Structures are given as structure tokens and as C-alpha cells.
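ingest -> fold -> write
write: protein_1
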Amino acid sequence: MAALTTKSSSLTGAPFGGRIRLDDLRKTLVDLGLATREANLYLSLLGLGSASMVEIARASGTRRTTLYPRVLRLLKKGVIRTEVFGRRKRYIAITPDELYALHRARLERVRDLLPNLQTLMGERRLGTRVHAFEGREQVIAVYEDFIHQPRAGTLLGFIAIRETQRALPDFMATFIRRRVRRGIHMRAIMPATPEAQERKRNDAEELRETRLIPAERWAFTGDVYVYGDRVAIVSPAELRAVRIESPEIARTVRAFFELAWIGASHV
């Protein structure tokens, strides 16, 4: 059996292939909705492979009376399961792949509810809403919003593609593919950097129409997008963003874009 302790900062033992940072694993599991002690229990059981209640208690250093309610909660959440060997019940943690599939399925169910939730929110919303975002994951969430808004229409954007691709290289490549799969068209105004010229060559397959403007004259380094009744302003270099939800402001920014679009055809 692997030597395990959920009170230290690492896991050791053959099942883990050496030494792994426990704090990082625990934090991710907590982010996925487990309590800290539930995350510790899942990690212990994952290392054990299959264990009785007595073995789990011994490995995790937890009394059985305290352990049992946590096991029940993990069973209810679907992250562990039981198997019967002879007359003995043993507990098994779902594999990392199964854990990923479980949370992906839950995320897809939420995504399917988005149109109804957005309608409900729209019925009750009053005034302008402004949201600030900071950090890589939060900025990515802003981009994800572009393709998850129902009836948002064509995505319009002033895009500093060089800075955006440098800040989020892997994400931007997959984001464009997913936007295309969803059939979301885009019109973009970009400074004519080499990166922008390359993107423009792919306009047809990426459902986009791009107009380039002289980079030496209009060298903006942030992005501005308008979609539906929302405007997003993103600073890729700083990994910060602001999203404004207002039909009036979106209408105004859309008018600015159309004016710039006409101007971009003459430069």
C-alpha cells in the first residue's frame, strides 16, 4: 500500500510515480466543488485504489465515525463508488478521466440552460451592469461569453491580434475553431501587423471579414468587442477586462464600429 498522508504538502508512493504537490491537487478539487476534507479523502482513496472503511480511516488518519458522513457525501457527488467483494464493501475513487467527464457533463447541462437563464435575467434586469475581470482564467471567461450568448448576432471587434495571441496563444487557436463550429460570424478591424495579415488570409474558413488599418498610425494594443447588448474591453497584456451590459451602450459602440468600418475601407 502507498504511504499516504493528506496533512503534508505532497504525496509519495508508487501509485503516484514519485512525489506530487498535494496542495495543487487539493486546490483544484476544491475549485471543482469539493470541501477541503472531501478533497483529502478523494486523494487518499485515489492512491489506495480500493479500500474498506477501516483502510481509508487508517490511511487518512480519520476516525470512522467522522469519516462515514464524508464518504456518503462523496458517493452522492459521484466522485467515489462502491464495489462488493464477497461480503465486504470497498470504496473506489473514480479515475481522473471519469472526474473530468463528470464535470464536463455538468458544465454542458449548465450551457444548455443558458438561453432560459439569460431570458430570466433579462426580464428582471434594470439599468447598466458593469463587471471587471482580472487574471488569465477570468479573461478567458470574457471571450467564452462571446460564443455562449443566445441571439448575439455577428461579433464585431477592434482587435490587437498580436497582443491577444501572445497573451493567450493556445486558447485563441481553440476559441476560433469553436466559434466557427457554432457558426458565429465576425467582422474585425485590426492594425496591419504580420499576425493580422496572417489571420486575414484565413478569413473565409474562420467565418470572418477583416479590415486592416495602418499599424504605425493606429497601434492600439487592447481589444473592444460588441455582441448582443454587451461590450467587452480587454487588455491582453495586463490580463484585465471590463464587460458592460447595456443595450444603449452596445448600440453606441456598434455605431462607432460601423463608422470605423467604413473608414477602414479607405485607408
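write: protein_2
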Amino acid sequence: MSNPVIEKWQELKVLMESIDLDVHKNANGNASAGVRARKGLRLLKTQAADLVKLTVELDKAKKTK
């Protein structure tokens, strides 16, 4: 059985790698890449919040055992 926290963390790392390329393209003047980067950052924010919620839920579950 795999750990859901680690799985979510891996997803976040993959998302960061994809955003990184668009940020660099935007820094060089590509406006479309800026749109993609901002969209990716919003997605990253929501997924990071999901990871926080998941870890809190798991910690609470461990305390009640």
C-alpha cells in the first residue's frame, strides 16, 4: 500500500516542474506562457491546500486510534 501523502507530494513536484518551464518562457517575453504559468500556480495553490487537509486528517485519525 502506498502513502497518500507521498503520492500527493509527487503530484505537486511534477506540477512545479511543468510550471517552471512556462515561468522561464514568460521571463523571456512569451505572454502565452505567462497565462499558463499563472493558471498552473493557481492549481498548485489548491493542490497544496488539499495536501494540507489530507495531512491534518491523517494526523487526527492517528490520534484517535
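write: annotation protein_2
The helical segments are 4-27, 31-64.
Residues 6 and 18 are 19 Å apart (CA to CA).
pipeline exit 0
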